[in-house]
Amino acid sequence: MELLQAVKERKSTRAFLSNPVPGPVVEEILQYVIHAPSAINLQPWEFTVVMGEERERLSRRLIKAYREKNISCSPGNVKPLADTFNRRGIECVKLMTPYISKLGATFDAFINEGSCNFYGAPVAIILTLDNAFSKARLVDMGIALGYLILVAHSYGLGSCPIGLINAYEDDIKDVLNIPEHKSVVIGVALGYPDPSSPVNTYKSPRDSLDNFVRWFD
Ligand SMILES: Cc1cc2nc3c(=O)[nH]c(=O)nc-3n(C[C@H](O)[C@H](O)[C@H](O)COP(=O)(O)O)c2cc1C
């Protein structure tokens, strides 16, 4: 698949078929992902691929933690955001809600519990970073995430970045035996999209480029 086509087509998948993704396919995808650039070629990323019964165990633990602690999907801002960003967040919820309602679920329940369950995807990938690195290396992690979701799309796979699970980092570390000196940066749900699910027909919009760019010419 052409790169620009993948960039245009990719969208977050929030309903997956139960068909497993073969381990060698996940490995091939990650072989592409590690071509991502990183500062001084440090390649700080680490991927924990979770499938099968372990994947179920991880979800059970995350859903339990969510029900106990009730920390929802939120951008986790440090300070109140400018109106532009609040407007985009409100619009995101408003536009997605009708698709989620078709499943008989509320937005909050679907997104929060769904995220903890990796939306039923057969593969969860947890991206971790050693705490010895500075926060600047989160840029490298973000690039790797971008590569991962685009390469997955090229393989006909759907994906959804799952930031919500960061709130339950201790639980993830415990289930997956991730050492204390590493941080969970993000999770990714990966699998074959369920074409019959209304949520997968939703494509999120973007603001006009003029809102993001200043030119000095
Ligand atoms: C860092 C990051 C964290 C995200 N966390 C979640 C999440 O926890 N749950 C979820 O359903 N979607 C999550 N998303 C997906 C975003 O909601 C999605 O990318 C955005 O609405 C734009 O839609 P698109 O990916 O379909 O283009 C996350 C995306 C990013 C980049």
Your description of this structure?
By secondary structure, this protein is of the alpha+beta class. It has a single domain (3-71, 81-202), classed as NADH Oxidase (3-Layer(aba) Sandwich). The chain has seven helices and four strands; from the N terminus they run ααβαααβαβαβ. A four-stranded antiparallel beta sheet has the order 1-2-4-3, with helices on both faces. α1 crosses α6 (138-154) and α3 (52-69) packs antiparallel against α7 (169-176). The chain is globular, with a radius of gyration of 17 Å. 29% of the residues are buried. The mean pLDDT is 96. Flavin mononucleotide binds next to α5 and β3.
* Range of helix content: 40-55%
Number of strands: 4
Q: In what order do the strands lie side by side in the largest sheet?
A: 1-2-4-3
**Architecture in CATH?**
3-Layer(aba) Sandwich
Describe the global form. Answer: globular
Bound ligand species: flavin mononucleotide
CATH class: Alpha Beta
Give average pLDDT, whole number.
96
Q: Which H/E pattern describes the elements? A: HHEHHHEHEHE
First and last CA, distance: 34 Å
Number of domains: 1
* Structural class computed from helices and strand pairing: alpha+beta
Largest sheet: 4 strands, antiparallel
Tell me the CATH superfamily: NADH Oxidase
As a percent range, the share of strand residues is 5-15%
**Count of individual helical segments:** 7
- Might you state the CATH topology name? NADH Oxidase
Low-confidence stretches: none
